[in-house]
Specification:
disordered C terminus, alpha/beta, 8-stranded mixed beta sheet, Rossmann fold
Length: 283
């Protein structure tokens, strides 16, 4: 990887919690950091705050609501139009389990957590892969969770038996399955872009955790340490297709190692977001 102060980095979900803290730390190290958020006012506030804390003026802001696939497409188009390189993509934006237990849908009619936590980063990553490839060597970091639930392909939108934690947990497993599959595809093509997933820390003290639970177990700084290691540690330059729990490589749910399940999820995901077959490597 290039030195961190020469990198252009996109951090999704950068107006709160882990994403904001990771973006601030990268900015303090001199990176060109692109902040993503869904609320224009909070995005502008985060931009001012991180600029003031880091003294770094090489920051950008991109607004997109991940509950809309059109917004995700527009975000990818803006990043590719406005920046000549992208060295690191941190897919962090997401929704927790929620507190009211009600099933919700995205603008495209998909179960909301599946749309925001999985389909949005699947689409964004695929759309940005050409830029990442042109900028290689590069990295993709997918923020997942130790909370994982197997995917029922006959009920993937949880129209039956919905539960907020189940919805959240299956999206995190889906993101890990995507990580493993994408790593294999990029490796087969000889592309010097790595992709790894991690559980950054358990029940960090964030808004998401506070909405779903009544306590926290770790700090945001714990999650920042683990995420930055995957993002910029030199010893991981050629490591790809792994899942970590904090600083240690770990094993995900068994379904993540089922080749047919991963292929089925990829094909279904392409259909749901409107990508042509093998779009990640053919564009």
């Amino acid at each position: 990887m290039r030195p961190v102060d020469q990198q252009t980095i996109l951090v999704t979900g950068a107006t709160d919690g882990l994403g904001k803290a990771v973006a601030r730390e990268l900015a303090s190290r001199g990176s060109t950091v692109l902040l993503h958020g869904r609320d224009a006012a909070r995005l502008e506030e985060s931009l001012r705050e991180i600029r003031g804390a880091s003294g770094n003026n090489r920051l950008g802001a991109h607004r997109a609501d991940f509950a809309s696939l059109d917004d995700v497409r527009r975000l990818a188009d803006e990043v590719e139009r406005d920046h000549d390189r992208l060295d690191l993509l941190v897919n962090n934006a997401g929704l927790g389990a929620g507190s009211n237990g009600a099933r919700e849908e995205s603008a495209d009619g998909h179960e909301l957590r599946f749309a925001v936590n999985y389909l949005a980063p699947f689409l964004l990553t695929n759309r940005l892969l050409p830029l990442l490839r042109r900028s290689s060597p590069g990295r993709i970091v997918n923020v997942a969770s130790a909370g994982q639930a197997p995917i029922d392909f006959d009920n993937i939108m949880l129209e039956h038996g919905y539960g907020g934690m189940r919805a959240y947990s299956q999206t995190k497993l889906a993101l890990i399955m995507f990580t493993f599959d994408l790593a294999e595809r990029l490796r087969a093509e000889g592309v010097d872009v790595t992709v790894n997933a991690l559980h950054p820390a358990s029940l960090m003290d964030t808004k998401m955790v506070r909405e779903s639970f009544d306590h926290s177990l770790t700090t945001v700084d714990d999650g920042v340490e683990a995420t930055l290691r995957l993002a910029i540690a030199p010893e991981l330059d050629h490591v790809s297709g792994h899942y970590y729990e904090r600083l240690q490589e770990s094993r995900a749910h068994e379904q993540a190692y089922d080749d047919e399940a991963r292929r089925r999820l990829w094909r279904m995901s392409e259909d749901l977001v409107g990508l042509p077959t093998a779009a990640a490597l053919a564009r």
